[in-house]
Write a structure and sequence with these properties.
This protein has 283 residues and is an alpha+beta fold. The relative contact order is 0.07. The chain has 7 helices and 10 strands. Among the domains are: 17-46; 48-88; 92-195, Tetrahydropterin Synthase, Chain A (2-Layer Sandwich). The chain has helices at 8-46, 123-129, 134-151, 156-161, 163-179, 197-247, 250-260, and strands at residues 48-51, 55-61, 67-70, 73-76, 82-88, 92-101, 107-118, 183-195, 268-269, 275-276. A hairpin with a 5-residue loop joins strand 2 (55-61) and strand 3 (67-70). The strands form 4 sheets. It has a 3-stranded antiparallel beta sheet with strand order 3-2-5, with helices on one face. It is rod-shaped and about 165 Å long.
Length: 283
């Protein structure tokens, strides 16, 4: 059996400690290197941003508070300090149900569909004023206010008849309201206009009564026309007889008689030269 001296044990322990220290030191260096590489990658990726077609990117510098708008392309930015918010500047559609009241205080519901787009040159101003939730903050309230102000100028019975006039007023009012926020209105469509159930019943009853009146007027008109036709026919017949009497002469009567004569001579002659036609036996 080999025995180790007491002086060898501390030496072995010291060597093991050196080896472990070297390994741990290398591991820490590798870990630090990996962390640095990841940070560099993240920072490198965060230094670029891209903007697609039909989109505007708005940058905000958290230190200076400045904003800028960028169109389609690839751009550099300061990581962490600069943030990017993207806005769609293509034509967009928004459908809104707006409650309003007519001039005579009848409830009117209007389904409005609008087409609009953002002014791509001034999107950063919209971001500063409103943010990126402009639909709820700006468009919906503007549509509701425009519908209320426009519908209130018409009695309820004229709203359907003058639908185009209502639309023009809404469009003009809405265009002015949205322009303040650099939102450009393209068109307004009134998809549907509806009224209270009670008013619908009144309108329906009125239409029934009007139809009855129109039917009665039509029957009366037909009777008048028939009466007029009968009068004209009678007058025409009377005029015909009058003209016929005015044109009849003895010669005309003779010609009519000759046309109807069968070619046989009369059997007897009266003394006053009046002919009496009596058929003979011709035996």
């Amino acid at each position: 059996m080999i025995k180790k001296s007491d002086g060898e044990t501390p030496m072995i322990q010291s060597n093991v400690s050196n080896v472990l220290g070297t390994v741990l030191g290398s591991a820490k260096q590798y870990a630090l290197a990996i962390v640095l590489i990841l940070v560099a990658l993240i920072a490198g990726c965060g230094s670029f941003f891209s903007v697609g077609p039909g989109v505007v990117g708005v940058t905000f510098n958290s230190i200076t508070g400045n904003t800028a708008a960028y169109s389609q392309g690839m751009y550099l930015k300061i990581p962490i300090v600069t943030s990017v918010v993207k806005f769609d500047v293509k034509t967009q559609r928004e459908d809104i149900q707006a409650d309003s009241a007519s001039k005579d205080l009848q409830k009117v519901k209007v389904h409005v569909a609008i087409n609009y787009h953002l002014d791509y040159k001034r999107v950063n101003e919209l971001y500063v004023k409103v943010g990126n939730d402009y639909t709820e903050k700006v468009i919906h309230p503007a549509v509701n206010e425009s519908v209320k102000a426009s519908v209130a100028q018409f009695p309820v019975e004229e709203i359907i008849v003058k639908r185009e006039d209502v639309k023009i007023l809404i469009e003009k009012s809405l265009k002015d309201r949205l322009a303040i926020y650099n939102i450009i209105l393209e068109s307004v469509n009134l998809v549907n206009i509806s009224f209270d159930d009670e008013f619908n019943k009144v309108v329906e009853q009125k239409q029934i009564e009007e139809q009855k009146i129109k039917t009665a007027e039509y029957i009366k008109k037909q009777a008048e026309q028939k009466k007029q036709a009968t009068i004209l026919e009678a007058e025409g017949e009377a005029r015909k007889q009058e003209l016929l009497r005015a044109t009849i002469s003895k010669d005309t009567v003779m010609m009519k008689w000759i046309d109807k004569w069968d070619g046989k001579l009369p059997t007897y002659m009266m003394g006053d030269k009046t002919m009496m036609m009596v058929p003979g036996d011709n035996k």
